[in-house]
Request: fold
Amino acid sequence: MKKEKSAGAIIFREEKDKKYYLVLHYELGHWGFAKGHIENGEDEITALKREVEEETGIKNIKLIDGFCQKIKYSYGDISKTAIFYLAKTKGNEIILSEEHIDYEWLPYEGALKRITYKNTKNLLKKVNQFQKNVK
Reply:
């Protein structure tokens, strides 16, 4: 089985003391977070910033200290590990890449319902708990 590693970000913004999470609609039909393959010579942070900009057009993210989670999954003959960080942005304008067909900024409950895969839903639940504990 071929192994791959990706890096991504759970991106949120705040508006009137409420958090909104960016969820992306992939061409393959599922909803999730910005992520992509770590290229040769890249570290996780460099890869996630590049992928976020490529997939969303967002250039100004601030990583939130203390949150880093891995999820593992497989498809076909590929075993994948995706490392996610929590990131905040101030803007809400998105420029989608060709691999996405839509996006939404949703509050926690809405994002949880919109996200397709259980492991990604669990990731958002961990973000929610983390943010409650940070205050």
Summary: The CA atoms of residues 4 and 93 lie 30 Å apart. Residues 118-134 form the longest helix (17 residues). The longest strand covers residues 2-15. The beta strands are 2-15, 18-26, 31-32, 34-37, 62-75, 78-88, 100-106.
